[in-house]
# Entry
Amino acid sequence: MDDLPTLAAAARAAAVGGPGSAVDRLVAGLAALGALIFAQRVRLLVAHRVEDTAGLVAAEAAVTAVDEDRAELRLSVKERDDFFSTYFVSTWSPQVVRLAARLRLTPTGVTVISVLFALAAAVLFGVGGRPALVGGAVLLYLGFVLDCVDGQLARYTRHFSAWGGWLDTMADRAKEYLVYAGLGFGVSHAGLGNGWALAIAAMTLQTVRHMTDTWYGVLHDEAARRPRAAAGASGGIGDRLNAASTRVQADTGSLSYWLKRTVVFPIGERWALIALTVALFNPLVSLVAVLVWGVLAFAYTGALRTLRARWMWVPVLDTVDATLHRDDGPLARRLPVVRPMGPLTLAVIAALGPAVLLVAALWSDTPDGLRWAVPVALLVLLAGGLGAGAAHNGPLDWLVPAALRAAEYLFAIAVGVVGGAPGWLIFAYVFVLTVHHYDLTARLEKRQTAPPLHAATLGWDGRSVLLTLVAIAGIVSIGMATLGAYLLVVFVASVVLAWFVRPARSARASAAPVGAGGAVPR
# Structure
């Protein structure tokens, strides 16, 4: 929509006439006006530039020969997907898409069914026993198939909506973390170890990874919008890595292409790994495998993206509401700014205090004796707020939101361990935090405004202060359960307001007659 005035200007210029065809003049005009132009492969459909009668006849014949329904069904599958999705899902999921369309299922309905499959798998993982574990693995695989089908159905039926896209993003994470909860309970129930600790670690790692994925994606898109010189390109290793990545991505189907797409541990590979390891071994092996591969993938992508980001040098957080996506509360927004250190350095420091407290609590035989250290860790955590008002224009400041997420999660986990809260409660509290933060990232990807009740979530700083108070009072379990329930209610109310109440009001307002209610529009 933002490029429509540019398109209109280029079309007017092309209509005047000149060398070449009108299409050539239009594309040249768009390029001259600075529009970002991408080439899109036609794939199974037909596109010809007709210049004479013979060409027109040939083009009409080619169009007539296309089975449109079959072509649209195949085109509903992503052209470039991950290895597991490409060879173990998309080879037969179009048939499920056709069946879902005949049954008049909506993409949202398919998303809900996939959540139910994942929930059933999580329950079976918790029950344990070989039949339950194998059955859960099968349900998990089928749930992932349906997770792919909802998007394919949307493309096949042309039923797109902002609500459906948001729900799909949120459901993906909720399903995965419900499975982690089932695996964690299964480990503890079978006496194989502290399953909840592993589940919390897997959820925290994956969320922080996703935060870096989102912000690096914003960085990459913003760099593509800017001329090369404006992005601060200076060659070097970042330039070579960028060129190498482009070559690998262009060589579709090659070994290097699939290795690059698989090593980053995308969702299809994660679900496949969980299904295989839990069916062949047990939930403990599954969680450990997820953690090991996740850590290696995080280290690999983090190192390469850091080098490439220094090459791009784009101040990403200057293009969006940094306060919103940092999830700052009233305290962080009022802290003084320490400019020489930079917001990323301060965010990393903020994570160190909770990390040290968590390690000390895990190693201590009497973690309750570390209650005095919680306020100290809070003070270190609040260092992250000292960069809230600073310009986020460093080459690595796209890592700030992820660092703050890690800081808050580590602090909450440490307070829970010190206060003797049960593992399931700590998991549930961090899960609610991740839902809140995924809502922010989903809105970032759609460039939407803040959730209606965002201020009521108190910010990472306000929530951490409340946890400190309940730790001092010795009621961590009660306080964590109460705060988690409050945040969940706020989230649900915010979703209802954002996606149902406000659109309904807007629809009624647009349908109201002019001057209704005695008001004179101006």
